[in-house]
Specification:
By secondary structure, the protein is an all-beta fold. It is built from one helix and 25 strands. The chain has two domains: about 5-15 and about 195-385, no CATH class; about 40-190, Immunoglobulin-like. It is elongated, with a radius of gyration of 24 Å.
Length: about 400
């Protein structure tokens, strides 16, 4: 017999994540030397920011999303020389930095927070970073001094993540043209993860036990840096006042597999996030029937940026599923209309278990700030009992 169980997508949004905490106990670094005074450099002023970083609801930043340090690396595109590589302090949601760089050239500027594990072997200032070249001892100048050495290492931009660290990375890469005068640029950093929030509402009139909650079609790899071909448009979409849209023009690693993951449930319930519901084990929880006390919010679930499209010629839209048991019955549902799981997306899913419920709503939220995505089609979905 089909069980009528409604799944409501309340909101889906793009980045805006949070505060700050180092990925490891790295101390803030000091520049190795001051800027030159021979006129060969100019000042690059960078305003680094988390898009829409102000939390409208006043809520605290979750620990996994905190950052208080930001590494900035500047590499000259022509000479491949590292001109800046420093771990700075970062005052959420934005901070400003003045960096001395060689004039009249284009720079690749890397931003990394909570990512020191991937930065330890990166070339120092004055060394050469060119992952496409073999290792060399450097170029010998007229005075016999080796001016720089080339370090062989994988491309930082193409670095892949298998396991998301406890403190989630923030990254971005910008190309900045520098002329013969001081230049300023605003650069945004994106959290390298997707966040799901699930809330169960019990409208059955009886206490129910939910168990074996899973989400499927989720990637097992992602890139450390955004591989978004429309980065500037994406930033404008997040920070601007115009109509919002889903972004699907991004890449995930070729070796990625989309898998099923168990959503962890704490044995003590989730007091402090939901005043209702009691966790009975690490894989099940009770949603009470008492009116006004009949919701249960699972602690936020973080996963890789994903892009799951069925391998059929006419398949275009991405597809993601959840499943769980109520008692001995298993239920599965596609989260329909979820067209993108690009990084820095926050998906809020409200699963309303009510035989008579027909209502469905859909809003979009930017991480911590609710905005209306009125031009998007409503997201609809239902849960059906799996036939034995």
């Amino acid at each position: 017999m089909k069980k009528i169980v409604r799944i409501l997508i309340l909101c889906l949004g793009c980045i805006i994540a949070c505060g700050l905490l180092p990925a490891c106990s790295s101390a803030i670094e000091e520049p190795e030397s001051g800027g030159r005074s021979d006129g060969s450099t100019v000042t690059l002023t960078i305003q680094a920011a988390v898009p829409d970083g102000t939390r409208a609801d006043g809520s605290e930043v979750p620990d996994r999303e905190k950052i208080d340090q930001l590494r900035i690396i500047v590499v000259d595109q022509t000479t491949h020389k590292v001109e800046h590589n420093l771990l700075h302090g970062f005052s959420y949601p934005e901070d400003e930095y003045n960096i001395e760089v060689e004039k009249n050239s284009t720079k690749d500027v890397y931003f990394l927070a909570n990512a020191e594990i991937w930065c330890s072997d990166f070339p120092k200032v004055g060394e050469i970073y060119n992952p496409d070249e073999d290792e060399s001892e450097g170029n010998e100048g007229d005075d016999g001094i080796i001016e720089a050495r080339t370090t062989t290492m994988p491309s930082l931009f193409n670095q892949e993540i298998t396991d998301l660290p406890e403190n989630l990375p923030y990254t971005s890469k910008y190309e900045i043209k520098v002329a013969d005068k001081n230049v300023a640029a605003t650069c945004y950093i994106a959290i390298a993860a997707v966040k799901f929030s699930f809330t169960f509402t019990n409208g059955t009139g009886n206490d129910i036990v939910v168990s074996d909650f899973k989400i499927s079609s989720i990637a097992d790899h992602s890139y450390l840096f955004p591989h978004n071909k429309d980065w500037d448009e994406w930033v404008e979409n997040v920070t601007g006042d115009g109509a919002k849209e889903y972004f699907t023009n991004y890449e995930i690693p070729s070796i990625t597999e989309h898998k099923e993951y168990i959503v962890p449930i704490p044995s003590s319930g989730n007091e402090g996030e939901s005043e209702a519901g009691t966790g009975t084990s690490t894989s099940s929880f009770t949603v009470l029937a008492e009116e006004g006390n009949n919701t249960y919010t699972i602690p936020d679930f973080y996963c890789h940026e994903s892009k799951h499209i069925l391998p059929f010629p006419d398949a275009k839209d991405q597809q993601y599923f959840i499943q769980f048991k109520i008692g001995e019955e298993e239920y599965v549902a596609e989260i329909q209309g979820l067209k993108s799981l690009i990084r820095s997306t926050h998906v809020i899913v409200n699963i309303k278990i009510n035989k008579l419920s027909e209502d469905e709503t859909h809003d979009i939220v930017v991480w911590g700030k609710i905005i209306g995505w009125k031009d998007l089609e409503p997201v609809e979905g239902g849960l059906e009992e799996v036939e034995p």
